[in-house]
Write a structure and sequence with these properties.
Layout lengths: L1 E6 L15 H17 L4 E4 L12 H10 L5 E4 L2 E2 L5 H14 L4 E6 L6 H4 L7 H15 L5 E3 L7 E4 L13 E5 L3 H10 L2 E4 L6 H17 L10 E3 L3 E3 L3 H14 L9 H7 L3 E3 L1 H15 L4 E4 L8 H26 L10 H9 L28 H6 L4
Parallel strand pairs: 1-2, 1-13, 2-3, 3-5, 4-5, 5-8, 8-9, 9-10, 10-13, 11-12
Antiparallel strand pairs: 6-7
């Protein structure tokens, strides 16, 4: 079981101090939070993708490369990479590069996002969001598995003889999670490819996510990837922890009440009752998190949201210490004792390499640098004016 945190990268006014961090302060803070995640003994740090205020994470691949370079064992991941408005060719290149730089300590979570204006900003139509997600991932899946790709679809220009570079590390593509809040078609897509399914599990009642996860498990087995028990499931969750319940509620209440996403709505107590939000002592957070398994079955990854709503950096680092010292060790022990023996571990680069190659050495692709352009395969100097070829001789 992997434990970690995920951030939506909001820049929000602290309702207690009245201060709003600058972009520079928030970006520095998230780097500190990522390092603290590893120091606290957690496994995964994930960041979302946004292209509008009040967020800062418009370039998660860049941020995660920095985090990977400043940590030693932490798995870095996206909490959403926008499969709809990012070119799948660019996703293939950027995250294969991240895979190499991190030595395989990464994976990718794909989603459509929840910001409607992002579509026209990147030249897309939100009304085509779902078919875009399906077609773009079909191409991304092939780009990481075929050295040379011929492809034609509806939403981008065709590819002929195209090679995405760099090729995946050890010729093993990054593991992909498909994140969804509401869409069964995304659960079906994850099941079809044998990928992971990540349920946001923050704002909606458990019954909603139970239906999605049950459907994903059934379709995973239907497509021949294993039993329903062997499907790969991840969950989000929200937590605020203090030594005792009274302090936790007193400290978090102003942040809950003013949070852009759920402030000025239901009371914190009602929200805790209806959703996975957990505010309390370490034992209360443990008990609430253990109910996730009762509702959704065995799963492989649990990510907590702990740095949102204007919480100051010092508080977030304290939350990570409490998670690492008092919550996650107990959860690891309790979940291991209850888990079905058939439940697989969360995939890692090492496990995927082992599954593909066994005791053999991994293949190391060497794309031919002299194969010419990606449209015709011709030499870049063929049919070029002789004087231009003389000025720029072929290497």
């Amino acid at each position: 079981m992997q434990f970690g945190i995920f951030s939506v990268s909001d820049i929000t006014r602290d309702p207690v101090s009245g201060q709003t961090p600058s972009e520079a302060e928030r970006i520095d803070a998230i780097a500190s939070i990522a390092r603290k995640t590893e120091e606290a003994g957690l496994d995964v740090f994930a960041i979302g993708e946004h292209h509008n205020p009040p967020f800062f994470s418009s370039s998660p691949a860049t941020l995660l490369a920095y985090v990977a370079a400043t940590t030693k064992r932490l798995i870095v991941s996206t909490a959403t990479t926008l499969i709809t408005t990012n070119d799948p060719v660019r996703i293939a290149e950027e995250y294969a590069m991240l895979q190499h730089l991190s030595k395989g300590r990464m994976d990718l979570m794909l989603g459509r996002g929840n910001t409607a204006p992002v579509y026209p900003w990147f030249g897309q139509d939100i009304r085509q969001g779902l078919p875009l997600a399906l077609e773009n991932y079909n191409l991304l899946h092939r780009l990481w598995r075929e050295d040379v790709v011929d492809w034609k679809g509806k939403y981008r220009t065709p590819l002929q003889g195209f090679t995405s570079i760099p090729r995946p590390l050890d010729d093993v593509p990054p593991f992909v999670w498909h994140g969804s809040i509401r869409t069964p078609e995304i659960a079906e897509q994850a099941a079809y490819y044998g990928d992971g399914f990540f349920a946001n599990n923050i704002f909606w009642p458990k019954e909603h996510y139970m239906r999605l996860i049950r459907f994903y498990r059934q379709r995973y087995a239907h497509h021949g990837h294993g039993s329903e028990q062997q499907a790969i499931v991840g969950l989000g969750g929200q937590a605020y922890i203090a030594k005792n319940s009274q302090d936790a509620k007193r400290e978090f209440r102003p942040y809950f009440s003013e949070a852009p996403v759920y402030g000025h709505g239901p009371s914190m107590e009602d929200f805790m009752e209806l959703t996975p939000l957990s505010v309390g002592s370490p034992q209360e957070v443990i008990d609430k998190t253990l109910t996730f398994r009762e509702h959704f079955g065995d799963y492989q990854r649990q990510l907590f949201l702990v740095d949102h709503a204007g919480l100051p950096l010092k508080t977030v680092l304290g939350q990570l210490e409490l998670l690492g010292e008092e919550v996650v060790p107990v959860l690891r022990k309790e979940i291991a004792a209850r888990q079905d023996p058939q439940t697989p571990e969360a995939p890692t680069h090492a496990s995927l390499v082992g599954a593909k190659y066994g005791d053999r050495a991994p293949r190391q692709p060497r794309p031919n640098a002299n194969r010419g352009d990606n449209v015709t395969g011709a030499s870049p100097y063929q049919d070029t004016a002789p004087e231009l070829a003389a000025e720029y001789p072929a290497p």
